[in-house]
Amino acid sequence: MKKIFGTLTLAAWAAMAVPAHAASPYPIDGTPCASFAASGSVDCAGGFAGENTTPISNVINVANTETYGVPTWATIVGGTSFTEYKDDNSGAGSTTSLIDGNSNGTVTFLSAVSGPFILALKYGNEFSAFLYTSSTFAVGDAITFNAAADQNGLSHAAIYTNSVTAVPEPETYALMLAGLGVVSFVSKRRKAAAQAV
Fold first, then answer.
1. pTM above 0.70, yes or no
2. What's the CA angle centered on 172, arms 167 and 178, to 5 degrees?
3. Helix, strand or coil for residue 35?
């Protein structure tokens, strides 16, 4: 009897010693950042339960909790009222796509982006988040990650920030200059026609 009571007491003490999990998100499989590293990121938070896109509060919780140097990720990317840029995969929902996430281990930019942001990769029942501080990406540039560490396949990816500013492509500048040239030409013709009268 003493042996059974002792075993029960030990089990009760062990149960009380195990810390309770905080509210989601929390690490669930300990996917190490080193194994699942995304190129160019300066910091990583890996293996969180739930979705990266629904609810967005999961990523906000990560951004508020994680620090890089002294500031939190949220401070670096401009607060927690993020703009969410989902990728063009069907699992990401329907928004204007900024990136294309592929299970082969790449996230390709469909739009040029500059500024601090958080990249979240959703796989299986969890996601990992990566901080980018001052990187600039052109259309077609890609972030690579270790697909071998992603046992469940990439479902979708998303970028979160208040500071992403689209970087105009050279074609945009060329069109703008051409438009200014046409306006200038028309203005000079009108001025010449008015002086001739």
1. no
2. 150
3. coil
